[in-house]
Amino acid sequence: MEKPLEVAAIIAGCNTLDDCNRQCTEKTPSACVSAGRLYEFGHSVPADPSRAFQLYEQACAWKYAGGCYNAAVLLEAGKGVEKDLSRAQQLYAQVCQLGSKTSCGRASTLGSDGKP
């Protein structure tokens, strides 16, 4: 049985994975993150964390904090992408500058000892 679209996709204004992907190609970063979450967790599609990472990075390139944060989480965990704590720390720091206390904490932790 196919898992339903999660709330994040609906909030981004896309109703299907195809719609999220289309909006992402039209430079709507929230749709990229929504599609990424669908791929990351296998909602309406087989789980593909590598594809999720690509979508998060695209949103991050457009200065969308949610994309940067989610990409950092995958980099930190080595989920769908090679583990890269230095890059994860950089992305967390970027999101921290936008006011995310959670990201500030992660950036500080990774920056201080290099370990999660």
In words, what does this structure look like?
With 116 residues, the chain is mainly α. The chain has a single domain, classed as Tetratricopeptide repeat domain (Serine Threonine Protein Phosphatase 5, Tetratricopeptide repeat). It has helices at residues 7-11, 17-25, 29-41, 49-61, 65-77, 85-96, 101-113. Helix 2 packs across helix 3, helix 3 packs antiparallel against helix 4 (49-61) and helix 6 (85-96) runs antiparallel to helix 7 (101-113).
What CATH first level would be assigned? Mainly Alpha
* Annotated CATH architecture: Alpha Horseshoe
Question: In CATH terms, what is the fold-level topology?
Answer: Serine Threonine Protein Phosphatase 5, Tetratricopeptide repeat
What is the CA-CA span between the terminal residues? 36 Å
Q: Name the structural class.
A: mainly alpha
Number of helices: 7
Q: Portion of residues in helices?
A: 55-70%
Gyration radius, rounded: 14 Å
Total beta strand runs: 0
Give the overall shape.
globular
From N to C, what is the helix and strand string?
Answer: HHHHHHH
Q: How much of the residues is beta strand, in percent?
A: under 5%
Mean pLDDT rating = 87
What is the domain tally? 1
CATH level-4 homologous superfamily:
Tetratricopeptide repeat domain
The major sheet is characterized as:
none
* Unreliable sequence segments: none
